[in-house]
What does this fold into?
Amino acid sequence: MKIAIIGTGYVGLVTGTCFAKKGHDVICVDVIQEKVDMINQAIPPIYEEGLEELLKQTVKEGRLKATLDFKEAIQKSEIIFICVGTPSFSNGLLDDKYVRSAATSIAQAFQEGQEYKVVVVKSTCNPGTTTDIVKPILEKSKLTSGKDFGVGMNPEFLREGVALKDFLAPDRIVIGGNDERSQQLIAKTYEGFEAPILQVDPTTAEIIKLASNSFLAMKISFINEIANIAEKIGSDVSSIAQGVGMDERISNKFLRAGLGYGGSCFPKDVSALYQKSKELNVPSKLLEATIEANKIQPLRAIKLLKETLEEESLKDKRIAILGFAFKPDTDDVRDAVSVPIIEKLLAEGAIVYATDPVAMKNFKKEIENENLHLLSSIEDVLISAEGCILVTEWKEYKDISPAKFLELMKNPILIDGRRAYEHDRFIESDVKYKAIGLGNK
Ligand code: UGA
It folds into this structure.
């Protein structure tokens, strides 16, 4: 099929490249010349595991190209995916300005007598966006919905770091076409995928996306609260999660306790659905609690640190931080819990030495403070520290031996915010090892 992808950010580029791999002809449209040039030279403007290789292959085979030319891309395509960003408003709802401007450009590129096309929103958006905003904009073209074009919503469920796998081998494909013809055309793009397809209306598809992320975030906040209870009682949350997760109705996925969830999706999507529930006068208590629990959870690390130090004040104490990224294998620090943790440490007068293998550059834009020192070497961060908090479970941090913490730190206290270390490794050492939900061990 001939596919146009509007927006070559994370979702757009992964979607376009994967469709090209599946044998479709893909044109990616962006408004930034530099990005278009890079894609045509098979250089991905974003980092995602395996993307460069796949992009090279599909560009070389002539199945994927990028352009600034909206008209050409729209006219040549049977199906158009809108994959632009939807940032949050301060009240939590998602800003659809880029979706609207993409729809406007598509409408301008429509021509009378054109072959039937379906415009599909892939961007995560507020419920109702496809039907109440995108469709009316397209109708301004004077073409008729249902006759000349269709609309649909097809949410993405791509995790950063494993996005190609998530796209090519999904658990499910949700298709929200506004009529039978659109449903069929969207489903055709997924021919050959071995995944169940769920056909719904566009608004339901939008809610499925927000509810899926909200449920996963709620699972994390739930296990984090259980971790805090377990810690007080003296049980290990890992064993609790294992036992709970063995129930197939619950599953053990997304039951890793830690310092809370971050990233560009969970915090944003939970807030959007919560805000919508309030607007509709059915405020969701569970979503509210999920957000609240995730706000408090990062600060557990500081509480554990103080308890272990047996001191109330962190003033002038040198504290080491390992990791800024919201999860390992990414340089993304959006809504990462490293930010509130470091802010709180600085507010309490601590001197913070911190590092991350790839997210350093992005983190520099987040906090500037004379008491915050960003260093690239793990040793330089640990040396003379009176406490260390592991915030992101990068492999290189998991590999630090107890002997190393002991040798470098002034006061070898390690707070494992991600349950990254085997507790047994520290039993024989003099490192004071504390972890979220570890209990009495
Ligand atoms: C998430 C979803 O998992 C994707 O399905 C979705 O498509 C994507 O958002 C999106 O909306 O685009 P992503 O943000 O890449 O993907 O990150 P995850 O791997 O889901 O992790 C999110 C956060 O939860 C991380 O901070 C991670 O450390 C935390 N987490 C995850 C836990 O604290 N415990 C867990 O058990 C799992």
